[in-house]
From TrEMBL:
Family matches, as InterPro entries: LigD_pol_dom, MtLigD_Pol-like, NHEJ_LigD
Organism in which the protein naturally occurs: Sinosporangium siamense
Taxonomy, superkingdom: Bacteria
Span of domain DNA ligase D polymerase: 26-284
Name of this chain's protein: DNA ligase D polymerase domain-containing protein
Alphabetized NCBIfam families for the sequence: ligD_pol (TIGR02778)
Pfam family name, one: LigD_Prim-Pol
Length: 289
């Protein structure tokens, strides 16, 4: 069917296809979610080159990451050509799409781009990459640790940042982990994030690990400071995740982090997120600035 969105005509297809079999959540519902969450999500996407994770046959089927704008991308969608040194596909540059309006967001939702990932930096009006404007800590629990332990480590990181006058905001990853964002100025933040991770690992060796090796993670929370590498992306605030249910990466209050005692406390689906935004607005609004 053809729909008119924000001054653009979009052709939508396979709207009845079930993309989340466990709940029967369809492609139409994915598009509906992204349409309704757009007012608070778009500020977090604007100016940031997009990487999508597409699931054309649903979350139980094959998926693929896509950075380069598809060949059939409409001309009205903004793209920026950026260098990609060391590309696994041998490319020198990639034409990244940038989501800056509702029609573009709906276009990618129609491609079954369930997950939207962006870097911690933006491009300027001419498409040139700018220095990172966001610091991120990606907290990944090693079983039997869960998001409950991530919440405890998040509070430790918060304390480290506050001691230096930096305010941070938490959000779920939409999966089993937690992420902290903070505004950043002054060059690349990887070394700064690594120093905090190493310091906390030394102070809390039974709870924190700062190295990526899987064998070091069981029962601990891995502080992935490397997400601040300019070549990496992190799931965008409010993005759906390809889990059994249509969970989303959801901004939280610090009170919710402090009160978390069960992993189920912070499992938030698309309907939960829409309800939260209706009553609380964008808890990540300061991050978008």
């Amino acid at each position: 069917m053809t729909v008119h969105v924000g001054g653009r005509d979009l052709s939508l297809s396979n709207l009845g296809k079930v993309l989340y079999p466990e709940t029967g959540f369809t492609k139409a519902e994915v598009i509906d979610y992204y349409t309704r969450i757009a007012p608070v999500m778009l500020p977090h996407l604007r100016g940031r080159p997009l990487t999508v994770k597409r699931y054309p046959n649903g979350v139980d089927g094959a998926f693929f990451f896509e950075k380069n704008a598809p060949a059939h991308t409409p001309g009205w969608i903004r793209t920026v050509t950026l260098p990609v040194p060391g590309s696994s596909k041998g490319r020198e540059t990639i034409d990244f799409p940038v989501v800056e309006d509702l029609p573009t967001l709906v276009y990618f939702a129609n491609l079954a781009a369930l997950e939207l990932h962006v870097p911690m930096w933006r491009v300027d009006d001419d498409g040139a990459a700018q220095p990172p404007d966001t610091l991120v800590f990606d907290l990944d629990p090693g079983e039997p640790a869960t998001i409950v332990e991530c919440c405890l480590v998040a509070q430790l990181i918060r304390g480290e940042l506050e001691a230096e006058g930096i305010t941070s905001w938490p959000k779920t990853s939409g999966g089993k982990g937690l992420q902290l964002y903070a505004p950043w100025e002054g060059g690349h933040p990887s070394d700064y994030a690594k120093a905090i991770a190493r310091r906390l690992e030394k102070a809390h060796p039974d709870a924190v690990v700062s190295v990526m090796a899987r064998k070091a993670r069981p029962g601990k929370v891995f502080i992935d400071w490397s997400q601040n590498n300019p070549a990496k992306t992190t799931v965008a605030p409010y993005s759906l995740r390809a889990r059994e249910r249509p969970t989303a990466s959801t901004p939280l209050t610090w009170q919710e982090v402090e009160d978390c005692t069960d992993p189920g406390d912070l499992v938030l689906t698309s309907s939960d997120v829409l309800s939260r935004v209706e009553h609380q607005g964008d808890l990540f609004s300061e991050v978008a600035k």
